[in-house]
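User: I'll paste a sequence; please echo it back and then give the predicted structure.

Assistant: Echoing your sequence first, then the prediction.
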Amino acid sequence: MRIDVQALTEFNVETDGHSVTLQVIDAMGSPVNLNLQVDQLGQLAMTLPSLIDAAIRRQYGDSSFRFTYPMESWVVEQAIDPSLVILTMRTTDGFGVSFSMPRSKAGEMADSIDVGVQTELELITN
């Protein structure tokens, strides 16, 4: 069954915390509830960025296009496992996502950002 969504109206976390309900309005104006288990919701969250990028690339016929989110803030925290850190990034409208990574990857990321910034500064000054 295909449901063409006109609007996402709200969501609810079930009292047991094991599932959520997404409430939408379909193209005919009727309310529809989608109930997803937390694992299914996680799978959806992991799939959506790739789907959005694929749709944008197909829409504009350019494989370099990306759907980007304006980052407002980030936090790096120690994970329970001492070999890992948690990087949480948040957008201006409150969307956030957290990644766990080995400390060595965090260092590589910092070096990569530093090199990228240096390269951009060289391009601007030349």
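The mean pLDDT is 89. The chain is about 35% helix and 35% strand.
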